[in-house]
Each structure stands twice: as structure tokens, then as C-alpha cells.
Amino acid sequence: MYLPHSPVVNSWNEWDPLREVVVGSADAACFEPTEPGSRPRIRSTPDKPFPTGMKSKEAISLANEELAGLVALLEAQGVTVRRPSPRPFATSIRTPDFEVSNQYCAVCPRDVMITIGNEIIEATMSRRARYFEFQAYRSLVYEYWNADPRVQWTTAPKPSMADGMYREEFWDWPVEERHAKMHSFEFCIQQDEVIFDAADMSRFGRDILVQESMTTNRAGIRWLKRHLEPGGFRIHPVHFPLDFYPSHIDCTFVPLRPGLILTNPDRPLRDGEEAMFLENDWELLEAPQPILGNDEMPPYCQSSKWLSMNVLSISPTKIICEESEKPLQDLLASRGFEVFPIPFRNVFEYGGSLHCATWDVRRDGSKENYFPHLTYEPLVQPAQP
Ligand code: ARG
Predict the structure, then answer these.
(1) What distance in Å separates the CA atoms of residue 124 and residue 115, rounded to the nearest whole number?
(2) pTM of the entire predicted model
(3) Site residues for ligand 1, CB cut-off 6 Å
(4) Is beta strand 113-116 parallel, antiparallel or unpaired with respect to 119-122?
(5) What is the distance between the alpha carbons of residues 57 and 28, in angstroms, rounded to a whole number?
(6) Beta strands in the chain (DSSP E)
(7) To test the ligand 1 pocket, which listed residue (32, 104, 250, 295) has its Cβ within 8 A of the most ligand atoms?
(8) Distance of CA 197 from the midpoint of ligand 1 (Å)
(9) Coil, helix or strand at residue 262
(10) Which atom of ligand 1 is nearest to the CA of 307?
(11) pLDDT tens digits, the chain, 385 residues: what are they?
(12) How far apart are CA 369 and CA 245, in angstroms?
């Protein structure tokens, strides 16, 4: 078998030069259903019932046009772009443990799939409507896996998603209660089963951050540690106590290149957790306020205004931003980045922005140590060479 120099699956961080990426698709996208792990609300009229079933043809084509714009830009930059397979998201699903009236979409591969070096991991997922979302990426995974024997493929254990896996009262906690509980990091999922969404991770070579959130619990982080630490990775749980509804780290703490992380001024790290960055010469750069306020986000969008920070790196010097986010674009340009602005707001109601809507399969580079001054006790000792 002919083996190209770099494995077909090879991505160790969020910024090395991008060679192949999967961009999501809004085909057959549905509104996320109300379920124990999610209480979607219409922003402008939170008391009106949230729509169910398939989104309108118009909304789907607006999102698909912007996704096509992202594809065109990436291809013009020499990046190979792949797309998910069509899936029947409007169908209900039923397992022995739960039933849900419709599924969601394949706009955000970032939430489901992650490349860690030469390994693809399918996340457990945390919401019922997203249980089978991995299916949209299976034919790509088979293709990569068949093409190169160096590719590892892991599917994390599927949780039951039975009623008992969730803490439904979470949704009714008043703000004062959330405030009082901010350091307990207890959200709408319980701690017994292994639960994580891929987008709660951020990759820095041999160091990987994992956010405890509404979509990733402590058992999920333990599973990732036991799975990855024997291979020489170091898994660092991180917390942002002022984010009362945390899910997915890529609007909160976004590495841009070695030594530089874009941070969210509303969501500081838990006391003490910034030390590993500062002691290893990483600069924490605060993102400017987004152009849209939380009240101005699209009515069906469930994410915060901080989708502004959800940028995608083409390389350590080239970065894609939403076109209206001028202050962020100017900040990045002042730091030496070539910024590529593209319209993406019509994608927001499908779960995210530019980073969410992609899954990088291949970037240049290898497993580097960006934290040389770290004292770290792995849960599992790395295997001796
Ligand atoms: N929960 C985040 C926020 O509202 C949005 C995260 C979107 N990221 C993603 N990978 N889908 O700030």
C-alpha cells in the first residue's frame, strides 16, 4: 500500500495549516426538540412554544448558501472540503431507553467528531436528538479508515439518555440559585454515565482542554483521560464558573496560534486554572464585545452573542471571521493575522458559527509540547516506548 508522508487523518491542534476539513450541511435540518437535555426557546418570545419538525425550505437554503460560501473560500485557499451524507433528521427515534420526535441536523460536525492526532473519536453526545448524528459522517470515516492503516477510529460508549441520566430541575433553577451553585459545576446531566460532546475539547498538541458543561460531565472527562493519557496526552479539565449554561468551549476559550488564546471577557477561567497558560508564556487576549447583543441574535438561535469568537483558523496566520464582527477582525489584524470575513449569521440557528460548522481531518504538523513548564500527574502513566 502506498503511504503518503502525512497520514490522511492528522490534526493535533486548532491552528496548523489546514489541508482537509468537513463542512456541515443544513439539508433536512430540524428544530431541536424539547428534551431533558435541552429546553430551546424563541429569543424574542420565550413563552411561545418552540417550533418542531423540519425547518423551512427558505431558512435551510439561506444557511446552505452561507455554508457554500465557506466551502468556496476554503477551496480557494487550497483546502480539500468534504460534506456529510444526507440523513432523515425529521424521523423520530426510539431506543429501549428513550423516544424523541425528531432529530437535529448535520450543520455542526465539530460537536460530534474530533481528530486527535491520527485518531478519529466519535463523541458519546449528550442529547437524544443528536444520538445518531455520527451517521452523517460514517461514510467519510470508513473512507479515511480504509485509505490509511495509520488511522485509528474510536467510538465512545453511548450513554443511555434515559430520564435518569438527566437533572431536569436544572432548567427551573432561578438565577440566584445558579449563582450560588456556580462552583459545583452541576448542570442538566448527572455524573453516573460517560457523557461528552466533542466540541467541549480544545487541542493544543499533547495537551487537550476539556470543559465541564451541560454537554460534558466528569465521567466523560475521566473516560477521555483513560483513553488518551496512555498515548502521552495530558487532559486538563477547565471551568468557566460565570457561564451558567456552558456547552462547547469554542465561544469561550479559543487558541489562535502558539502562545495566543482568545478569551471571553464574560467567562473568566476558574481561579488557578490560568496558571498553566501564564507559566508557559501563553497570552490571554480578551475578545471585544460582539456586534450583536444577546437580544439581537436570530430568534431560533440557542447560542449566545459570543458566536462572534467562533473563528476558524486556516493556518497560524490566516483566520476566518463572521463578516459583521469588525472589532474582532481589527484586533486580529493588529496581531498580524490575515482575516477572511464571510457572512454566516443564517447558520447561527443551526447550533453555531464557523468553528462549530467544521471538523478538521488533516492539518500539517505533529504532536508538539506547547507547555514545557507543566507539572502534571497523569491519571494513567504513558506506555514506555
Ligand atoms: N454555548 C456556546 C455559547 O452560546 C455556543 C457554542 C457553539 N459551539 C458549537 N461547537 N456548537 O456561547
Answers:
(1) 15
(2) 0.97
(3) 108, 110-111, 199, 247-248, 250-251, 303-304, 306, 351-352, 356
(4) antiparallel
(5) 9
(6) 18-23, 80-82, 93-94, 99-100, 113-116, 119-122, 152-155, 201-204, 207-211, 234-238, 253-257, 260-263, 283-286, 312-313, 318-322, 338-342, 358-363
(7) 250
(8) 11
(9) strand
(10) 12
(11) 566 678 999 999 999 999 999 999 999 999 999 999 999 999 989 999 999 999 999 999 999 999 999 999 999 999 999 999 999 999 999 999 999 999 999 999 999 999 999 999 999 999 999 999 999 999 999 999 999 999 999 999 999 999 999 999 999 999 999 999 999 999 999 999 999 999 999 999 999 999 999 999 999 999 999 999 999 999 999 999 999 999 999 999 999 999 999 999 999 999 999 999 999 999 999 999 999 999 999 999 999 999 999 999 999 999 999 999 999 999 999 999 999 999 999 999 999 999 999 999 999 999 999 999 998 888 878 776 6
(12) 31
Ligand 1 centroid – CA 246 distance (Å): 8
- SS3 category, 300: coil
**Sole residue written with cell 460548522:** 357
Mutate to test the pocket of ligand 1, among 243, 295, 307 (most ligand atoms within 8 A of CB): 307
Catalytic residues: 197, 248, 356
Burial class, 58, CB count within 10 angstroms (exposed 0-12 / middle 13-18 / buried 19+): exposed
User: Tell me, what amino acid is at 85?
Assistant: S
User: Which atom in ligand 1 lies closest to the alpha carbon of residue 245?
Assistant: 1
CATH code, residues 18-363: 3.75.10.10
Distance 294 CA to ligand 1 centre (A): 13
